[in-house]
Structure prediction request, 630 residues.
Amino acid sequence: MSAVSPSPLRNAAPLPPEMTMPDTRGVNFYEIDDDLKRLLRATLTAAEFAQAEPHLHELGSLVGGRLDELSRSSDRHPPELRGTDQRGVLINAVDAHPDTVELTRIGVEQFALVAMSHRPVLGFSAPLSHTLKYAFWYLFVQGEFSLACPMSMTDAAVRVLRRYASQELNDAYVAPMLRTDAGYQSGAQFMTEKQGGSDVGANLLRAEPVENGWRLWGDKWFCSNVSADVALVLARPDGAAPGTAGLAMFLMPRVLPDGSMNHFRVTRLKDKLGTRGLASGEIVFEGAVGYPVGALDDGFRQMMSMVNASRLSNAVRSSALMRRSLVEATTAANGRDAFGGPLAEKPLMRDTLFRMLVETEAAAVMVFHTAGIYERADAAVAEAAAHSELPSTASVPPDADSRLLRLLTPLVKGVVCKRARQVVAEGMEARGGNGYIDEWVDGKLLRDAQLGSIWEGTTSIVALDVQRALLRNRAGAPFFTDIRARLDRVSAHPELGALSSALSTWARELEEAVSELPELPEQSRELGAITLMNRMYDLCAASLLLAQAEAQIRDSRDYRKVAVLLGFLGVHRPALSPPGAEPSSVLLGGAALEILGSGHVSLAAVRPSLEGIRPESARPGTPERAAGPQ
Prediction:
C-alpha cells in the first residue's frame, strides 16, 4: 500500500458543472450583505429600516437573477442610432434593445431610483434620505452598472433645476423626470468638447441671443445619455468672458413645445470599452433652442453642483462593482476544489479575498458616510435659504457640513473609483480562466470599472479639486474635526484605545501637512495631490472602520470589524504593524472563515494582531508631507 493517501477527488465520480464552476445565480445579494445591513441599521430609524427592507430584499433577489440576465444581454446588444426617419426627417432616435428598456423600467418604475430622494415612493411618506437612496443604488448597480448613469444624471438635473432654474422651467420639465411610469423622461449634462475635455474653460459652444431667446451653435464631443429628453448644456454667450467665468447653463429639450425636433444632430454613437448599454454620442448644435438656467455668468458653478452629485453617485457605483466582484470571487473560491481541497482554504487565495474585502468594506463605509454628510448639508442649505442667509454667489455654502461635503465628494470619487479597478481585476484572476471569458460576469465588471476614474474628472483632476476644497473652501477644518470626534469617542476603549491613539497621531501629522499647502510651490503642491488625496481617504476610512468596530464590540462582542480595520491598516499604514507582518496575518488567528464571511469573531482570534500594533511614535520615517511623490 502506498504511504501517500490519494486525493479525495481522485477516481471520484464527475461532479456537475454547478459544483465545479460555481457562480452567483440565484443568490440574494441583499440577504448576504451583512455589512450593508449594519450600515443601514446604524443610520436609519427602526421604522425606515423596516419599511425599506422588503424592497431591498426584492432588489437583492433580482441582482442574482433577472437583473443580471438583462444586464448581460444589454451589454451584448448596444443601442443603435437612427438619425432620420424613412422620409429623411431628423429624429435623432436611439433604439435600445428590449432588455435595456426593461432594465430602465425596473430602475425607474419598479424601484423609483430617480424619484426617491425628491418625492415619496415605495410606500414612504416622505422622500428617502441620501443614505437609503444610495443603498438601493448600491444594490441595483451590482446587477447593472451602465444604466445607473442616465438615472443618476436625471436625479442630479432635477436638483439643479429646483435650486437654480425659474419656476416656469421647473413646471415644464421637472415633473416628467420624476415620473415612475412609462411617461418618464430622462436628463443629461452635456459639457465635454474636443478641445476642452477636463479643461472646461476652453469650451467654445456658442450661445446666440435672438429675439425670442437663445440659440446654441457648435458641438459637444462626449454626451452620455445622448438621447436624453432634457439636457443641461454649458455654452458661452456671445461677448462673454473667456474661461469658466464666461460659461452659462442652458436647458436644451430634445423636443420643442410644438412637438418638433430641436435643432441639433446626433452624428454618431461612441463604440466604448464598457457601459455598452448606455448610449454615448457626439452632437452638432445647429441653432438649438436653449433656455437659460440661473444667471448667465453662473453656469460653471451650477454645472459643478450637478457634477459633484454625480461624483458621489459614481463612487457608490464603483463601490458596488467592488462588492459584486468580491461576492463572485468568494463564491468561486468556496465552491471550487483544487489540489485536494477548497480554494478558499489556500493561504494565498485567502490573502486575495481579504485584500478585496478590506477595500470593499472601506469603500462602502466611506460612500455611505458621505451620503450622510450630504443629507446634513442639504438640511443646512434649506435652513439658510428659509432665512435668506444663503449667499447666491457662494460657490459652497459656509456651513461646516457643506464644506465637508465639498471635500469628501472628490475624495471618495478619486480613490474609490481607482481602487475599484484593482479589486475587480483581482476578482477576475480569482476565478481563473473562466473569469476572462465573457460568458461569466467578471469581464463586464472589469470593463465597466475602468470608467469610474474617467467620468466626472480623472484621478488627477479630482485630486487637484481636493486641494481646491482645502485651500479655497477651508474644508480641512471640518474634515479633521469630524475625524477627531470619532477617535475621541473610542479613545478610552480598553481594546481599541491604542488604535485610536495611533490614528490620532496620524491625523495630527496629516493636518499639519495640509496646513502647509499654501506655502508650497505650486508644482510641488500639485505633484503631491494624489498622494495627499489617498492619505486623507485612508485616515478617514480607518476612523470610520474603528467606529464600526467599537459599535460591533459593544453590541455583540464581535471583533470581525477589528480584523477588517487591521487588514486595512496593514495595506495602507503598514508602519503600525510588526515588521514583516502581512495585512492578512489576522486570518491566522483561527477565524479566517468568519472574517471572510460574516461570522462572529472573538477577541482571542484578533488579539495577537491587535497587540502587535505599534504606537505611531515608534514607527520609523519622517512625518507626513503634503507634497511630492511619497
